[in-house]
Amino acid sequence: MDKKPLYRKENTRTWGVRRNASVAHYRDQRNTKTESRSEASRGSMHAGKRYGMDYTPLFRFLLSRVGGDWDEIFSEAVSRLDRPDPVFWMVAIHEDDREEIVRLGESSYFNGLYIDEQKRLQIVNPRLNAEDMAPRCHCCTHTFNGVVFGKPAD
């Protein structure tokens, strides 16, 4: 029996879906006749971008496997993904890359994970919880590991 994928497609065609506001500045430059632009800057506006994927099921899967053997976890995750890159958005391989909190969306935060010396998946700071967190703004619903922040915005 096949297991469900660890990602899902989002509807990016509906009104109000903002994919990436950072590419808007390119809109003002792309049709200029300036000679100073290089050939490299004339490439596709969205080269390498992949819109419409939600990897929340992957992040929950990784959190549920904390303490388990990394090789087994990674092989199962990759077999259920369209590409392996999203695993490393949350899991740090090198000690220098470890982060306590990882932002994986506009207002979705998750525990940072790492692989210990025994090749086990671990949480960088297991004492963090949503009840102790406060959002920076009033307009969004901020979550930590899928749980709404417990304190109001400042």
Describe the structure.
By secondary structure, the protein is an alpha/beta fold. It has a domain at 53-128. The protein contains four helices and nine strands, in the order βαβαααβββββββ. The chain has a four-stranded mixed beta sheet with strand order 4-5-8-9, with no helix packed on it. Strands 3-6-7 form a three-stranded mixed beta sheet. The protein has a two-stranded antiparallel ribbon with strand order 1-2. The relative contact order is 0.14. The model has no long low-confidence stretch (mean pLDDT 83).
Please describe the biggest sheet, giving its number of strands, its sense, and whether it closes into a barrel. Answer: 4 strands, mixed
Outline, from the CA principal axes?
globular
Give the termini distance in whole angstroms. 49 Å
**Succession of helices and strands:** EHEHHHEEEEEEE
Catalogue the unreliable spans: none
Number of helices: 4
C-alpha-based Rg, rounded: 19 Å
Can you give the helix content as a percent range?
A: 10-25%
Strand order, largest beta sheet: 4-5-8-9
How many strands? 9
Beta-strand content bin: 5-15%
Mean pLDDT: 83
